[in-house]
Amino acid sequence: AQKITQTQPGMFVQEKEAVTLDCTYDTSDPSYGLFWYKQPSSGEMIFLIYQGSYDQQNATEGRYSLNFQKARKSANLVISASQLGDSAMYFCAMREGLIYNQGGKLIFGQGTELSVKP
Amino acid sequence: GAGVSQSPSNKVTEKGKDVELRCDPISGHTALYWYRQSLGQGLEFLIYFQGNSAPDKSGLPSDRFSAERTGGSVSTLTIQRTQQEDSAVYLCASSLVGQGSSPQHFGDGTRLSIL
């Protein structure tokens, strides 16, 4: 079974509008973390935002925010005021076993390709 | 530089040859990871080093793949007797520690092509 599912292979958004990229996950571990990365066409992976399973509030970093719904096991990325430079592949990833300082590796979804239209 | 450095950036080799890929992590980062990204796919975990602990090799696809990390810094991923299905981008990442919220910082990758 897929641990991380990103159901939108491709998304389009108009410049200056907000966009939501979906991510659902599957784990029986009570302690985990969720990460979002951006991969432009140049190939580098850029860390955007982190949400811990025990965090009380949704994470925010500038124009990025996480819509974390623990009961639904979803951690959707919201990008506000889209810019042309936001066009890239976006990956959701999970690290399990946080409470006992286990884990380490990230499990990645298949990604969503976002295109921002001028 | 301040980031994760990988070399070579591109490698083309013939099927059956051995290849070595190098990763120089961010100074002070105790955790180092190797991932593989095939065309249009997500990242597949290969191996994880944390300090002096035994590495997590659970993602290595076959015994043709091995990796070492010398002196807690530079790492080398070796693929023996390469096959065409080994063609991919190999990404190295490092993080301050290997747990919790510590994000992984990635290098630019090595694009490996097996002829």
Please describe the biggest sheet of chain A, giving its number of strands, its sense, and whether it closes into a barrel: 6 strands, mixed
Helix content of chain A: under 10%
Oligomeric state of this protein: heterodimer
The stretches of 5 or more residues of chain B where confidence is low (pLDDT under 50) are none
Largest interface chains and counts:
A-B, 27 and 26 residues
Q: What is the radius of gyration of chain A computed over CA atoms, rounded to a whole number of angstroms?
A: 14 Å
What is the mean predicted local confidence, pLDDT of chain B? 92
- Total strand segments of chain B: 10
Q: How would you describe what is shown here?
A:
The complex is a heterodimer of chains A (118) and B (115). In chain A, strands 2, 5, 6, 10, 11 and 12 form a six-stranded mixed sheet that branches. A four-stranded antiparallel sheet of chain A has the order 3-9-8-7, with no helix packed on it. Helices cover 0% and strands 49% of the residues of chain A. Chain A is mostly beta strands. Chain B has no helices and ten strands. Chain B is globular and about 40 Å long. With 115 residues, chain B is mainly β. In chain B, strands 2, 4, 5, 8, 9 and 10 form a six-stranded mixed sheet that branches. In chain B, strands 1-3-7-6 form a four-stranded antiparallel sheet, with no helix packed on it. Chain B has strands at 5-7, 10-13, 19-24, 31-37, 43-50, 65-69, 75-79, 88-95, 105-106, 110-114. Classes of the chains: A mainly beta (118), B mainly beta (115). Chains A and B meet through strand 5, strand 6, strand 10 and strand 11 of A and strand 4, strand 5, strand 8 and strand 9 of B.
